[in-house]
Amino acid sequence: MTVTVDHRPEAPAGPPKLDRDQLRRAQQDTLDTPRMKYSLLAKMMFKPVDIMYGKQGSYTKFAMLEIIARVPYQAWERMGYWAVHHHRGRSALARRIFERIVEARADQDNEQWHLLILQDLVQRTGQRQTWLLHRAAPWLIAFFYYHVSWVLFLVRPDWSYRLNAEFEDHAEHGYMTFVAENPELDFVPDPGTYAAEYGRYRSVADLLRQIGHDERTHKLDSLESMREPRVR
Ligand SMILES: [Fe+2]
Ligand SMILES: [Fe+2]
Question: Is the dihedral of CA 46, 52, 57, 63 positive or negative?
Answer without folding.
Answer: negative
